[in-house]
Amino acid sequence: MAMLMRTDPFRELDRISQQFFGQNGTSTRPAAMPMDAFRSGDDYVVKFDLPGVSADSIDLDVERNVLTVKAERSADYGDGDEVQVAERPRGTFSRQLFLGDTLDADKVQASYDAGVLTLRIPVAEQAKPRKIAITGGDERKEINA
Fold first, then answer.
1. Distance in angstroms (rounded) separating the CA atoms of residues 59 and 118
2. Which InterPro entries match (predicted)?
């Protein structure tokens, strides 16, 4: 597998805790950021659900093959408002992906539309399959390497 994802053993515990005790927006643990990841041709595509997050609050960083996505969603009601229900997660969202050596971390492309952050990470040239010509005798053949 060309891309490894960091697992967070506490994410499920956080989700259950928030269900029973509520989330006040001041949690020190980052909220979950659901994602899909798949290969499409010569790219890996990763999509993160970030509904209600401003594109200005999204921070994307790559360091030593670790890609970090951070985003923040603030409450959209004021201090004087009387909140009846506050179920939508807010605060800081964070996710890290460990990119394998077969991916080109220097050429990550990002776009944000309709609450979905899409990253396209190309497969490194040296990791792509290529044909190697074999010569010998009277015939010339090509095989996949």
1. 13
2. A-crystallin/Hsp20_dom, HSP20-like_chaperone, Small_HSP
Q: Tell me whether strands 66-73 and 91-99 are parallel, antiparallel or unpaired.
A: antiparallel
Domain boundaries, the chain: 3-8+30-75+89-144
Whose CA is closest to 49, among 138, 7, 112, 143?
112
Which CATH number is associated with domain 3-8+30-75+89-144? 2.60.40.790
Q: Which amino acid is at 32?
A: A
